[in-house]
Amino acid sequence: MRYLPPPKELFIENRRRLVKGLKPGSLAVVQANDIYPTNADGVMNFVQNSDLYYLSGVDQEETVLVLFPEAPDEKMREMLFLKETSEHISIWEGEKLTKEQASERAGIPQHSIHWLGEFDRLLRIVVFQGRRIFLNTNEHSRAATEVESRDQRFVRRCREEFPLHRFDRLAPLMHDLRVIKSKLEVEMIKEAVSLTNDGFHRVLRFVKPGVKEYEIEAEMIHEFVRQGAQGFAFPPIIASGKNACVLHYVTNKHVCNDGDLVLLDFGARQSNYNADLTRTIPVNGRFTKRQRSIYNAVLRVMRAATGLLKPGVILKEYQEQVGKMMEEELLELRLLRISEVRKQDPDKPLYKKYFSHGTSHHLGLDVHDVGNPWRPVAPGMVFTVEPGIYIREEGLGVRLENDVLITRNGTVDLMEKAPVEIEEIEDLMAKGKV
């Protein structure tokens, strides 16, 4: 683990808030993610279950957290189960957490930290004392999970072993908690944002005609790893020319040609929190007149949309307002005709030909973080703001994206230090060529 663990007080408070939302007589069980196989004896890099990390701060596989606030034995009110190490594991994989380390990280008393071999016995004790079991699953409107997770296997096991118990979904409670970021969480997001900004400045000095998209990607990850980041928050999009019109382009294999734009959608991951930045820059360091007009239209929409994100706003209504602003820009660019707009189907607005995705999503432990889209925007939420215009017939795509924090007094731009004005970008790129 490259990052310094956050203070244990963060996880103590997170558990306190969750327990407050549990029904009487309830216990909650949260499992770590699996380590997923590739081929032969290969495995993917481990990524912790976001809910488990949020509640415990433990970033280790095969970890289980059990919360039973009404347990008669106070030692069973919070229990954390860890993979027990061995000499073989220490030689081949390195050190695992000790009980002392886990206690310090999670803020759970050491007498309530157990090896995983004790899980079955202690689980039966608390299950038979409780009346309801809250179980976790990965619930997200964009998720289409085909691989069975550790959580799903545990749900099936509980239904088989404890068929007369009541079961409930933990995910809605976790979503309500995680969508509002604490001050400590905001600071960790800011750290990821700062690393991302450094990566962008490095790229501005590097990009020129003839470089490969993957070379730009290499510059980004070099900067992140050099500063001790965990790596990319998500597979980066480095899309030059017509590739920018592919919304989730991740091939990153083409040459960046003189006269083209290159769309950069990337972010750093640090302390398990993420940043998400998009900028579109000219390969040769100078925007053409056409590129400037498209770019400035997107920039105006981004700034206006940021101003709309206020406490009380519903995201669906916000998206409709952003769509209207984009429609006006597309009319000015003569990509849409007013006569056609007046006759359009309200459910299929014409602007979506050039701006087909949403403007904002929650950001935090996950890049597309959890949150109810019908819950009004509230202080403590962190969103992206990312409008774009994609003109496939011209091989031209522009997207701009900043991360913003919602406060009672307005929106705070967490990426205010990331250059976005045309003149600033051109000036920095010119200095990089000296």
Q: How would you describe this protein?
A:
With 434 residues, the chain is of the alpha+beta class. It folds into 2 domains: 8-178, Creatinase/prolidase N-terminal domain (Creatine Amidinohydrolase, Chain A, domain 1), CATH 3.40.350.10; 183-433, Creatine Amidinohydrolase (Alpha-Beta Complex), CATH 3.90.230.10. Helices cover 37% and strands 16% of the residues. The chain has helices at 8-21, 50-56, 87-92, 99-106, 119-129, 150-161, 171-178, 183-206, 213-226, 289-308, 315-332, 338-342, 422-433, and strands spanning 26-31, 64-67, 78-82, 113-115, 132-135, 166-169, 231-232, 237-240, 261-266, 268-270, 273-274, 277-282, 382-385, 388-391, 396-399, 402-407, 410-413. The strands form 5 sheets. It has a 6-stranded mixed sheet, with helices on both faces. β10 and β11 (273-274) form a beta hairpin. α8 (183-206) crosses α13 and α10 runs antiparallel to α11 (315-332). The longest helix is centred in the middle third of the chain and has 24 residues, at 183-206. The mean pLDDT is 95.
Strand portion, in percent? 15-25%
Structural class: alpha+beta
Which H/E pattern describes the elements? HEHEEHHEHEHEHHHEEEEEEHHHEEEEEH
Q: Which bin fits the share of residues in helices?
A: 25-40%
Q: Give the low-confidence spans.
A: none
Mean of residue pLDDT? 95
DSSP strand count: 17
